[in-house]
Write a structure and sequence with these properties.
Blueprint: H1 7-30, H2 35-63, H3 70-93, H4 98-137
């Protein structure tokens, strides 16, 4: 039987993704770095969120027996690792205080974690609804 995630877990997941994204973006907005640097970090964040959802979807599809091409599966993982590498290199070379670097790293990680859990909750909710519908038709 598929069980729908609790409202508390769904809410916590949304709070995590929104807090991470808002914290990261507000930090960029208030930063004294050049606009091209802000654009770099913003792009890495958006690419990271997309990659995290893609990895979660591929892994879940494989578990559920839904076909996933090896190229898409591999690209999803490479993309996720690349965003982490890009953020690490960018922060390593940035002229920011160590506390600012840590802030961006943890806001990024919180955003990615939140995106993965929101995607998982969405899939779990859909699976629970599909299971309910199939039981009703019996």
């Amino acid at each position: 039987m598929k069980q729908k995630p609790s409202m508390a877990f769904i809410a916590a997941s949304w709070v995590a993704v929104l807090a991470g994204i808002l914290g990261f973006v507000i930090g960029l907005w208030n930063a004294t770095m050049q606009l091209n640097e802000k654009g770099y970090y913003f792009t890495v964040l958006m690419y990271g969120l997309f990659s995290a959802v893609s990895v979660q979807k591929c892994v879940r599809d494989k578990i559920e027996g839904i076909p996933v091409t090896d190229i898409y599966y591999g690209l999803s993982w490479v993309s996720m690792l690349l965003t982490i590498l890009l953020l690490t290199v960018g922060l390593w070379n940035a002229t920011l205080a160590p506390s600012e670097k840590g802030f961006y790293a943890f806001a990024f990680l919180l955003s990615v974690f939140g995106a993965i859990t929101v995607q998982k909750n969405t899939r779990d909710t859909q699976a629970a609804k599909a299971a309910d519908v199939s039981r009703e038709t019996l």
